[in-house]
Design brief:
The structure is a homotetramer. By secondary structure, the first copy, chain A, is mainly α. The first copy, chain A, has 2 domains: 12-75, Winged helix-like DNA-binding domain superfamily/Winged helix DNA-binding domain (Arc Repressor Mutant, subunit A), CATH 1.10.10; 85-123. Chain A is built from 5 helices and 3 strands. In chain A, strands 1-3-2 form a 3-stranded antiparallel sheet. In chain A, a hairpin with a 3-residue loop joins strand 2 and strand 3 (72-75). In chain A, helix 1 (12-26) crosses helix 3 and helix 2 (38-45) crosses helix 3 (49-61). Chain A is globular, with a radius of gyration of 17 Å. Chain B binds chain D through residues 6-9, 11, and chain D through 66-70, 74. Chain A binds a DNA duplex through helix 3.
DNA sequence: GTGGTCTAGACCACC
DNA sequence: GTGGTCTAGACCACG
């Protein structure tokens, strides 16, 4: 399900991070599942194992994956971890920036609310 | 009103772009207003003129400012420009990414709606 | 009493080493006791015998266990062995590293003292 | 002040992370200070810039440094950030393991308390 | 087989 | 000049 857009300006490893997070929210990956090995994934996506490894490391530091040397990398339980208020503050700041952009692109409040509703519906997933 | 945070990891020129956009939404800058020249702005912000120039170029390319040779740089009327659907699609994609992050940070839909409402209120400005 | 957490990032063999050491301190294993054979232990823990074997080797090299050919593996008397000052120096270094981490995590001296007291109490065991 | 022991089994980048944290606690590095560039540091320590970069990234993710592209890497204010309870729990677990080792090395409670006092005194630094 | 570390060298964005 | 990304390839520890 994971795909990488090689023409995007977004770094490969970030794309991979996002893609995996999305798959988890969609339920394609569930807590405890093993994700493809660094080498497999690299082969599949035609990229360097180091780049895949970097993505996995980021996801580990964000408490999304756990990796066990010699065994592989696994999906963690999402909500077994306290909320990270630092990152939440950063996220909020990001939202603000997007709203500024939106206004300058003449996107109305209503449109944005609609987007949110759509995407919340599409994701949904894990949250109880 | 424009300020730059020298310790932010966000590039200076992007901060400046955002800051000007924000001032416009807040009504501190109005359509037709002349903004300081590159050199003035650079002096005022203790930045390299090249960096200010880059920010202005970005704002021109985004139809936020317009430069009249020999006269200066001016704020454009926001809605005198057709909606740029391509950039709107990109923006929508960005929103989606933020929502994915939010779910992984255990931020609820309700919280996000609250953020948006707050920030919409704070900005508000030009759009009715 | 020995258990292995298959989702920990700590190597299995190290977990086993620690677990046995802990059981000794708790008095669940006493000097002279025979511990299960490599094969038995492997079966019981659903692990590869090689991994169990590695753990036992480490414990032997650390003077915690002793293997008598044809008879089995036994728990040694803790203080019948001279203090290994080299390993003690390494341990001290480890403590220092943990303290550096603690300070950066804004854990106060007092908290650390409390932790130590708690854990000393929980272990206690052999030493008076 | 930073040094790397090339014969240690501890990865270079971890040694560097520790060394920088220690220098901060000792007050050799203060909030706002710029630390040597990736390339300078690499040259000075005779290691690859990627390895240095990795250390800096770790420190950034741990809120110890901030890095600004094109400008350099800077020491952050230590206590301007909420306590990371996840990492504190991990640290506590580490302390427990060290205590287990200590008992098996016949190190008494008293000795450990002395170590702590010594090292607390040596570090001290930032905490008010 | 798994992931982790390290080196070397290329190219890019920012200042 | 700064750091960031990516590739390629070597070597090690764990199971």
């Amino acid at each position: 399900m994971v795909t990488i857009n090689k023409t995007s300006s977004r770094p490969y490893y970030e794309q991979l991070v996002l893609s995996i997070k999305e798959d988890i929210l969609h339920g394609l990956l569930e807590p405890g599942d093993r994700i493809p090995s660094v080498r497999e994934m690299a082969k599949q996506l035609l990229m360097n194992p180091n780049t895949v490894s970097k993505a996995y490391k980021v996801l580990e530091s964000e408490q999304v994956l756990v990796t066990v040397k010699g065994k592989g990398t696994f999906v963690k339980q999402l909500d077994e971890v306290p909320r990270d208020e630092i990152r939440i503050q950063k996220l909020k700041r990001q939202f603000k920036i997007l709203l500024i952009e939106a206004k300058h692109l003449q996107v109305s409040e209503k449109e944005i609310s609609t987007w949110l509703a759509e995407e919340q519906a599409e994701l949904g997933g894990i949250q109880k």
